[in-house]
Amino acid sequence: MGDALFLAHRTPFPPDRGDRIRAYNFLRYIGARARVHLVAFSDGDEPVDHTALDALTASHTIVPRTKSNARAAIEALATGRAVSVAAFDHPALRAAVSRVLATQPIDAIHVFSSALAQYLPTHTKARVVMDFCDVDSAKFGEYAREARGPKRWLCAREERRLLAFDRAIARRADASLFVSDAEAALFAEIGGGGRVSVIENGIDTELFDPAADFASVEADGPLIVFTGQMDYQPNVAAVTWFATDILPIVRARHPDARFAIVGRAPTPAVQALAGEHVIVTGEVAEVRGWIAAAAAVVAPLRIARGIQNKVLEAMAMARPVVASTPAAEGIDHAGTLRTGADANEIAREVIALLDDRVAGDLLGQAARAQVQRRYGWEARLQPLDALLGLQPNPVRAEPVEAHAPDTHFDTLSANGVGRRR
After folding, report:
1. Could you tell me the fold of the domain covering 3-202+377-388?
2. What's the rounded Cα separation, in Å, for the pair 202 and 154?
């Protein structure tokens, strides 16, 4: 085959959050089988590791996203588009895609996040794979049901407009990917159509290994841990719910238990939870030490789509996990997770793990074994060979002009709409 174009809404390196982890592993897999040209946005004033991208790609163009949430909303309302689409509309990225298509022999296009599908050429002979990951329109529907006033109207509008956009893209794509059977079934149920496939998330079980070398965290008393990007609203809602409604039930039985919220960019609402029994770390250099120190890892998300990387990471680290029903839905855990549908059920499962730490350790070991059997990245991504026409044997090429002025842009300060995870 010829070259591949990889479009991403966020630079897929470093793989330090859910969407980046999936995009990075897809990019690495495709790049081991074809010359791949990356065109992606960068967030805010984050540094871009061009050396790492050189090793992954034949060329890369990184465009800083400078559009504010307010401007994206105004443009969306004025043009009838979804805000999620308007937020990622940028002339520099459009020019970069056109340049790659005009100068490189592109036989396959992989689009990560449907908002980037607006850059697909109107007519192309290249195979197009659209990685939706989750049914994001359904997420906005859930937001609408919980919101009030203008926010409710805006979220309901976003659900309708984004679903219409995604349906149109699915009809154009040679394959539409989702992260779980449940997400694929939901897309079909709401009229998504197209040729739908499921490629689940994987996990690096050598990196997330309790026997690996990482800095340890000392805990006084049993530690209950949540990990995630802490300016992502479902995560904010999850830790707020746990700290205010679930932790008091747990502490009635285990008064020395503490709750650690581990993740970058905690919002003021998250920071306000910090106290004698709640730790808010902010960004940490090494998340594995916190997971390893946990008597239980929790994922009490009320709104959750697809497979939660935070859950796979904790399972791979052989820690017992208690997840809400939505957070566990996409994971083939074979009974190695404890789940709860409400605050009392989640609290009961956490208490049981704190009551019997030996049973918790055994559950964690079973969880790691399940992850090793089920969620290795190489096995999960093999369907891409047929979908994109990739060569099974590596054909990596040296990067070409990865630092030429017309190949990438300097990173500037930006505000914008972001995904998680």
Report:
1. Rossmann fold (3.40.50)
2. 34
